[in-house]
Every structure is written in structure tokens, then in C-alpha cells.
Specification:
Blueprint: E1 2-7, E2 13-18, E3 40-44, E4 51-54, E5 61-64, E6 67-75, E7 78-83, E8 87-97, E9 100-105, E10 109-110, H1 117-121, E11 128-134, H2 138-145
Antiparallel strand pairs: 1-2, 3-4, 3-11, 4-5, 5-6, 6-7, 7-8, 8-9, 8-10, 9-11
């Protein structure tokens, strides 16, 4: 909310009240399968051994190496994470279960102003394949080791502009629905249940 005062040409004091809307927090959440208190660790990909922790109390935050990364924007299988105020990275989730997470990701980049999901996901970085499993779950680890690397498929959310026709392949919007993390049993139960 901004309050501005200004003088008109005739010397009449005018009071201008400007209501500014900012993006509403909390609309970007991780899937219900991720909203557990069980940490997961990288077993395939460039960040082997990296641990990520999620929580149902804060469904839009993941702690990677104990550093908070916030779910900034999401469209279908694409999620943009934000860390350190101006660093953003795009992720495309292929499979999520309580004990397994398979995704492609781009590296974090610095932006001078708040970027759109399309800007972050169309950054020129290459996508890297990653598999994380629940820490200490031997069955999930065996499942991950037997996974065949899935192709990424489309590389941009629907309606994002194509910057590079050789690497940018927009989704059609008809892909299988994705759990958006808004209808989870989670920690909180509605009072009417």
C-alpha cells in the first residue's frame, strides 16, 4: 500500500491512495508426496549425496543443504525455485512418490528483477537428470538404481515463447495432471472435518 501526496496546478492539495498488489505467497506448493518430514538424497545426477528436506508445515519451502529454497512459480510439471533473494532455477518433475523423486533441472541463475516462470525455464542452461530417494530406504534406492533414464519430453510450459528452436519444445497442455500440493492431508486438518 502506498500513500502519495501531490499538489495540483491550482495549489489544491490532492491525496492519492494507491493500493499495490504483490504476488500472493503460498500458492506454489510441492506435491503431497513431498510434504512429509522425511528427507531425500540424490542418488543419480550431478549432486550425489545432496540432502533435501520438505515439511507439511511449510509446503512451499525445501531445505537443500539446510538452505531454504522457495517454490516461486509452478505450471504443470515445471517448478521454479528461488533462493538468496535473486537466484532462480527451473525444475521439471517426471515422477514423485513418497520415497522417490525423478526430475530434470537447470542450474540457479541470478536475475536483476523478478523473472517469470518462462524466463527461468527458457534459460540457455542444459537440463540435468536427477533421482532422489528417501534417506535410509533401501527399497527406494534399489528402485532408483533400476530406473531407466526417462526422456525430458517438452522443455517449456505451455504458452512460453520459444527462444531457441533447437532446444525449446513447449508442452501442449494435455500432459498428465500433476499433484499441485494443495489438496494434501498434511499437518493441518480443516476444522469442519
Amino acid at each position: 500500500v502506498q500513500v502519495k501526496y501531490c499538489w495540483t496546478e491550482m495549489g489544491i492539495f490532492v491525496f492519492v491512495f494507491v493500493l499495490g498488489f504483490s504476488e500472493v505467497g503460498g500458492l506454489c506448493s510441492f506435491s503431497c508426496a513431498r510434504q512429509t518430514n522425511r528427507p531425500i538424497t540424490a542418488v543419480v545426477g550431478p549432486r550425489l549425496g545432496e540432502v533435501a528436506s520438505f515439511s507439511c508445515k511449510t509446503p512451499s519451502i525445501v531445505y537443500i543443504k539446510e538452505e531454504p529454497n522457495e517454490c516461486y512459480a509452478r505450471a504443470g510439471k515445471f517448478i521454479v525455485l528461488q533462493r538468496r533473494k535473486n537466484e532462480y532455477a527451473c525444475f521439471k518433475v517426471l515422477k514423485t512418490a513418497e520415497n522417490l523423486l525423478v526430475f530434470y533441472r537447470k542450474w540457479y541463475r541470478c536475475y536483476l528483477k523478478r523473472p517469470t516462470l518462462c524466463e527461468v525455464c527458457s534459460a540457455p542452461d542444459k537440463w540435468t537428470y536427477n533421482v532422489y530417494v528417501e534417506v535410509g530406504n533401501k527399497d527406494a534406492l534399489m528402485q532408483a538404481m533400476n530406473l531407466k533414464q526417462s526422456p525430458i519430453g517438452c522443455t517449456l510450459p505451455k504458452n512460453c515463447p520459444i527462444k531457441n528452436p533447437f532446444t525449446d519444445f513447449p508442452c501442449s497442455g494435455c500432459e498428465a495432471p500433476v499433484d499441485n500440493g494443495h489438496c494434501c492431508a498434511g499437518c493441518y486438518q480443516p476444522k469442519w472435518k
